[in-house]
């Protein structure tokens, strides 16, 4: 999607973590943490805006099911993530670039681990994309040479 450092936007419930950017230093990418009163307030437009503003991946983090202080906020967020994934597929962005995670309330360690896992998944997608671009480039230059020889 972009060149250089990966950018991850994390849209999360304020109760899922107390982590700050410094806690995510092991993640080599650029991290943006946007906190909401509840993950149920995350809208599809918020997710798509993060991609439009250059995120290589978006992680939505909500409380574990049954522990949301607003009742079913995490479940609402999950439905919106599924809706956003459909839109991403329609516009040609891999749906794996968006993930929903359920995290124990105020669990900084679990939050950081999930962010690191997501970063690793994004790196794999970026490498796959670069390999596909390289393969297409070799094929098109070979086709051009064959065309020129005719």
Name the shape in a single word: globular
Assign the CATH topology.
Rossmann fold
* Residue-averaged pLDDT: 82
Give the ordered list of helices and strands: EEHEHEH
CATH class: Alpha Beta
Give me the secondary-structure category: alpha/beta
Helical coverage, percent range: 40-55%
Largest sheet: 4 strands, parallel
The total number of structural domains is 1
Features:
150 residues; Rossmann fold; 4 strands
Q: Can you describe what's shown?
A:
- The protein has one domain: 3-Layer(aba) Sandwich (Rossmann fold).
- A four-stranded parallel β-sheet has the order 2-1-3-4, with helices on both faces.
- The relative contact order is 0.19.
- The protein is of the alpha/beta class and 150 residues long.
- The chain is 46% helix and 18% strand.
Short description:
By secondary structure, the protein is α/β, with parallel strands linked by helices.
């Amino acid at each position: 999607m972009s060149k250089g450092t990966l950018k991850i936007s994390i849209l999360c419930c304020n109760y899922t973590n107390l982590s700050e950017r410094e806690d995510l230093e092991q993640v080599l990418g650029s991290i943006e943490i946007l906190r909401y009163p509840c993950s149920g307030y995350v809208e599809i437009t918020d997710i798509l805006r993060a991609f439009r503003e250059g995120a290589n991946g978006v992680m939505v983090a909500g409380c574990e099911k049954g522990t949301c202080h607003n009742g079913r906020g995490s479940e609402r967020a999950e439905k919106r993530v599924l809706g956003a994934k459909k839109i991403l597929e329609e516009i040609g962005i891999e749906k794996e670039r968006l993930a929903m995670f359920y995290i124990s309330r105020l669990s900084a360690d679990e939050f950081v681990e999930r962010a690191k896992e997501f970063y690793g998944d994004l790196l794999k997608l970026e490498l796959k994309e670069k390999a596909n671009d390289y393969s297409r480039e070799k094929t098109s230059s070979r086709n051009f040479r064959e065309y020129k020889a005719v």
